[in-house]
Amino acid sequence: MKKFALVFFTMLFVSLPSAFAQELVDVCFQSKWFPQAQFAGYFVAQEQGFYAEEGLNVTILDGGNVNPTVQVASGNCDFGTDWIANMLVQREQGLEVVQIAQIFQKAGYRMVALNDSGIESFADMAGRTVGVWGFGNEFVAQAVFAVEDLASNLDPTVTNPDVDTVVYAFDPSLVFPNEVDVASAMIYNELDQIVGLGFPLDTLSVLNPEDIGADLLEDLIFTTPELLASDNFKGSNLSGMEVAERFLRASIKGWEYAVNNQADAVSIVLSFCGDTCAGSGSTQSPLIHQTWQMARVAELVKPSPDTIVGAIDPEAFARSVDLLIQVGLIDTPVTFEEIVNSSAFEAATR
Asked: Nearest 5°: CA angle at 106, between 246 and 283?
């Protein structure tokens, strides 16, 4: 009888993980773009089972032609990733969102021109045409223009702009170099696409907003205060704060793995994406482009060995807020405590 009971309870214990697997809590994460190595940590966390280990079934929604902050604030998704400029602009317009982690510790936005264009600095853009993106991504370009005291037609009240802007759909091959003198480019994506179009790096002038103090925080994780205050997230018997903690713990684990195992991370990313992995307009193969992208993204996520993945630097946050106020993108000063809830991050990394 004792032997039978031992076998029975052993079998029951062994079966528990599969039982729990059937009770995973559904969580939605809104990406900022289509699948690519920019979001490798989340795909790794999903593929390696890190989310499942935390009891979560995470669905990663494609970005692209959606505004992540609007999607999450309107209740269409639980968590999202966005740039601080768009998040704060949308918040000032009445959307309730709160930052809970900072994945990119450094900004990847650049402006790119041909060396023979004569554009060697941001000030040289006066009288030129600059390609920018929409959906909240134009705010970083506006910050650059404002710091350099360049008026642009992004401001509808300007009648004689110093800079003429062309808003285009994230594909440098559509406009560069025939229709714009300067193209917006992420160091991990469009810059390599431009190289793939036949313009080697040594033929390009790559301008970094950090050089003029116009860099803004990118790729943070955010949610809503309502979710964090929930006592019973989607009937799971978990609080919203507990779900946020679990989501961050698994995501950070995914990012640590991606940074330390870049070839594996690229392979995982490639399994999630289609044509976008090649980079629109580029002649590079998906493998080559995503390998480049993963290497650059790793440098932004963990710029030094002692970087704590996901940590929010209050000083970097304050600099971004001050710049957004200085250039007129937001009117009301906001404090770290008003925008950031670090409780889930602290619990996840304890």
From this structure: 100
pLDDT score, position 285:
84
Claim to verify: residue 225 and residue 208 sit in the same structural domain: no
Q: For residue 105, report the phi and psi dihedrals to the nearest 5 degrees.
A: -85, -20
In a domain, 250, yes or no: yes
What pLDDT, on a 0 to 100 scale, did the predictor assign at position 22? 54
Q: Which residue has the tokens 């961050």?
A: 248
What residue type is 247 in one-letter code? F
| Residue ranges making up the domain that contains 273 | 22-105+217-277+302-348
Q: What's 4-39 look like in SS3?
A: HHHHHHHHHHHHHHHHHHCCCEEEEEECCCCCCHHH
pTM (2 d.p.): 0.89
Please, which residues bridge with residue 220 across strands? 82, 102
Tokens at residue 271, please?
């399994």
Q: What DSSP line would sit under 74-141, residue for residue?
A: TTS-SEEEE-HHHHHHHHHTT---EEEEE--SS--EEEEEEGGGT--SGGGGTTSEEEE--TTTHHHH
DSSP string, 197-265: TT--GGGEEEE-GGGGT-----SEEEE-HHHHH-SSGGGSSS-HHHHHHHHHHHHHHHHHHHHH-HHHH
Last residue of some domain: 163, 196, 212?
A: 212
Q: How far apart are the first and last CA of the chain?
A: 45
151 and 84 in a single domain? The answer is: no
Q: Which two tokens stand for residue 275?
A: 């044509």
CB 133 within 8 A of CB 203: no
Long-range contacts (CB closer than 8 Å, 24 or more residues apart) made by 334-338: 334/88, 334/91
Domain count, the chain: 2
pLDDT in tens, 166-199: 999 888 999 999 999 999 999 999 999 999 889 9
Q: Closest by alpha carbon to 284, among 203, 202, 192? A: 192
pLDDT of 276 strictly over 80 = no
Mean pLDDT on 74-88: 96
